[in-house]
Amino acid sequence: xxxxxxxxxxxxxxxxxxxxxxxxxxxxxxxxxxxxxxxxxxxxxxxxxxxxxxxxxxxxxxxxxxxxxxxxxxxxxxxxxxxxxx
Length: 86
What we know:
InterPro entries: PyrdxlP-dep_Trfase_small. With 86 residues, this protein is mainly alpha-helical. It has 3 helices and no strands.
């Protein structure tokens, strides 16, 4: 994820990194909006940039969570919190 308006990358692979500084450098406003939007749909991440999960989930629970995640990303795109890949 890149904060809006982004760097203008045109391919998803250009955003892939293992660099901890880059990963921890996601703006707090982006992380906060991500967490708040998920929380509004009942998903609570327990840390700044990561979350905990439980093995006590059904396939339906997982599908529901993925739908909420997709919707959250779309909301952040629509609200211009994160950038689209050009």
